[in-house]
Amino acid sequence: YQGYLLADMFVSQLSAALRNITASNSIAGSPAAGDFLKNVFFAHGNRYPWPELVQKVTGQTLDATCWAKDMSQYI
């Protein structure tokens, strides 16, 4: 189950990066979000190990800050 937690943490961190780029809570229909995903996230393919990809895409190493903030809404 650790893999699921790490993936969920990455999703939270990636979502935070996308919200910063779009300056909105919704990335749906955002050309800036689409460009970011295409040119920054997906463009690397399988070139880098995931910890390095997290750093390249979000600008920081994987940590639980964004995930904890997302999870706090359920408490």
- Radius of gyration (CA) equals 13 Å
Strand content: under 5%
User: What is the averaged pLDDT score?
Assistant: 93
Count, helices:
4
What does the largest sheet look like? none
Q: State the shape.
A: flat
The separation of the N and C termini measures 21 Å
- List how many beta strands DSSP finds: 0
Q: Element order, helices and strands?
A: HHHH
Poorly predicted sequence stretches spanning 5 or more consecutive residues: none
Residues in helix, %: 55-70%
Helix/strand structural class: mainly alpha
Protein described:
It contains 4 helices and no strands. The two termini are 21 Å apart. The mean pLDDT is 93.
Descriptive tags:
single chain, 75 residues, mainly alpha, 64% helix
List the helices and strands and how they pair.
Blueprint: H1 2-22, H2 31-41, H3 50-58, H4 65-71
Helix pairs in contact: 1-4
In a nutshell, what does this entry contain?
The chain has 75 residues and is mainly alpha-helical.
